[in-house]
Write a structure and sequence with these properties.
Blueprint: H1 3-10, E1 24-25, H2 27-30, H3 39-47, E2 51-52, H4 54-69, E3 74-77, E4 81-84, H5 91-101, E5 109-111, H6 122-135, E6 140-142, H7 150-155, H8 158-165, H9 168-178, E7 184-187, E8 191-194, H10 205-209, H11 222-228, E9 230-231, E10 246-248, E11 256-258, H12 260-270, E12 274-277, E13 286-288, E14 299-302, E15 316-322, E16 325-331, H13 346-372, H14 381-391
């Protein structure tokens, strides 16, 4: 065996690729004899690119929706918790998060929304989360992000993903479940956890409970602001002394940008220590904004999708909060299977390329044939058709 052949056989980044599972997970492995989901089996099956039977997926969605429907719009949670930011369909990075943060059931979790879109495994994230929520309803909490909506999931790729892997019916049931998601979480009466941020129409925590959440997010108003607002770009104590508390969010095209002063006033009015949010990619996975008068960051942004969209090369992070002690854990991206854009198959994707190349090849063959015999005239298409008609 030559050195080149030996190199081609051994010097590979992956010597073996596990084939994907094409069959659905049997019902008796997805649920126990009492009908309780088995998240560990579901997680392992999804890690092999397996699916669930559609009726089992629908059962997870409808049962989880009924649990979330009974929750208040502002969750009130006590105890230590792991707080996680945007995931955007990056299921294989979620596995790393659970490996580092602890298995749900052993650890309390709060997720800040944006579970789907952009990544190719949003339906796996959603169904696994729903299995955990059914098993641990009092220790596994999900709130809504701006991408948990019909508008954005149709514009981006989640709707296509669910139709490709399951059906339009399942997609519509997931959207109905998203309408049941709470909008914010109050942790230990000290930290407000939300996807986007504050609203000029929300001055007190009780205002959040008054929001009618069981609907598609509107384009304005307090519900929109909780999902869409951002800190102003120049978020510092000095920059906001003379500026407005809220200004139009020109980057998003909706909602507001809020200043450091706006956050400090809200925290003081409600007896809180800080605001914890997601919604924005961060190079290091998190960002600590300007401190309050108590010397702690008024706002903390956490982002849990490493190497976002396979292009950002960012780290991810999650927050572990125990009382008023905050620890931040960073992690890098994990390898994952590849899907072609918009979940198209290889033949559809490659067909235009093949047609172009075959036309180029045929053109060169015809051209070479004519050039090899200078006595053969080069006829136009019309001349060839006329000549053929005369022969008939």
């Amino acid at each position: 065996m030559g050195s080149i052949e030996r190199m081609l056989r051994t010097d590979r980044s992956l010597l073996h690729v596990e084939p994907p599972l094409w069959e659905a997970l049997p019902h008796e492995l997805a649920f126990d004899s009492y009908g309780v989901p088995l998240p560990s089996n579901i997680k392992a099956h999804f890690a092999r690119e397996g699916l669930l039977f559609e009726e089992d997926a629908l059962e997870l969605v409808t049962r989880c929706a009924s649990i979330m429907k009974r929750e208040s719009t502002l969750l009130r949670v006590q105890g230590s918790a792991v707080i996680c930011g945007d995931l955007h369909g990056q299921f294989f990075d979620l596995l790393k998060l659970f490996e580092l943060g602890g298995e749900p059931g052993e650890q309390q979790y709060i997720f800040l929304g944006d579970y789907v879109d952009r990544g190719s495994f949003g339906v796996e994230v959603v169904l696994l989360f729903m299995a955990y929520k059914i098993c641990h309803p009092g220790h596994f909490f999900l709130i809504r992000g701006n991408h948990e909506s019909r508008h954005l999931t149709s514009y981006f790729n989640f709707k296509r993903e669910v139709e490709y892997k399951y059906s339009l019916e399942l997609y519509e049931e997931i959207m109905s479940a998203f309408d049941c998601l709470p909008l914010a979480c109050l942790l230990n009466s000290s930290f407000l956890c939300v996807h986007g941020g504050l609203s000029p129409e929300i001055r007190h925590l009780e205002d959040i409970d008054l929001i009618h959440r069981f609907r598609e997010p509107p384009s304005s108003g307090p519900m929109c602001d909780l999902l869409w607002s951002d800190p102003i770009p120049e978020y510092t104590e000095e920059a906001t002394l003379s500026g407005p508390l809220f200004s139009p969010n020109t980057i998003r095209g909706c909602s507001y940008s809020y200043s450091h002063e706006a956050v400090c006033r809200f925290l003081e009015a409600n007896g809180l220590l800080g605001l914890i949010r997601g919604h924005e990619a961060q190079t290091e996975g998190y960002h600590l904004y300007a401190n309050t008068s108590m010397g702690v960051p008024a706002t903390v942004c956490v982002f849990s999708a490493p190497n976002y969209c396979d292009t950002y090369n960012n780290r991810a992070a999650f927050i572990y909060l125990d009382g008023d002690v905050m620890k931040i854990r960073q992690y890098n991206s994990s390898s994952h299977p590849y899907y072609l854009p918009n979940f198209i198959n290889a033949f559809t994707w490659s067909f235009p390329f093949m047609v172009t190349k075959m036309c180029e090849l045929w053109s060169k063959i015809i051209g070479t044939s004519n050039e090899s015999d200078p006595l053969v005239p080069v006829l136009t298409f019309e001349e060839r058709m006329t000549k053929s008609a005369k022969k008939k």
